């Protein structure tokens, strides 16, 4: 049976710590990407709803790259900001 010296124990601990850090980075990034994806979908749906229903009330938001990015990153609060900014200011 091989004996474990200090260097072997240190290497095993270092590998385990690096593995844990890599897993944390991967799953932390996936969580952020998933949140951004959900915000993007909600923002796009809300922009379409605002434009569909809002035309009856004279409230529209032009859908272009900038408004899509704002709605995608900020979600529902971003769409509310766009409506207020474009129609009331």
UniProtKB/TrEMBL annotation:
Keywords from the named record: Membrane, Transmembrane, Transmembrane helix
Q: Which NCBIfam families match?
A: spore_BofA (TIGR02862)
Q: Which organism is it from?
A: Clostridium tarantellae
Q: Does the keyword Transmembrane helix apply?
A: yes
Q: Is the DNA damage keyword given for this protein?
A: no
Residue ranges of the TM segments: 6-27, 34-59, 65-85
By what name is this protein known? Pro-sigmaK processing inhibitor BofA
Specify the superkingdom: Bacteria
Q: Name one Pfam family in it.
A: BofA
């Amino acid at each position: 049976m091989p004996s474990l010296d200090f260097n072997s124990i240190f290497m095993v601990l270092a590998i385990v710590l690096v593995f844990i850090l890599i897993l944390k980075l991967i799953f932390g990034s996936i969580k952020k990407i998933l949140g951004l994806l959900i915000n993007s979908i909600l923002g796009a749906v809300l922009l379409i709803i605002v434009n569909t229903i809002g035309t009856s009330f004279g409230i529209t938001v032009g859908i272009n790259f900038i408004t899509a990015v704002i709605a995608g990153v900020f979600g529902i609060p971003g769409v509310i900001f766009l409506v207020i900014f474009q129609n009331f200011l």
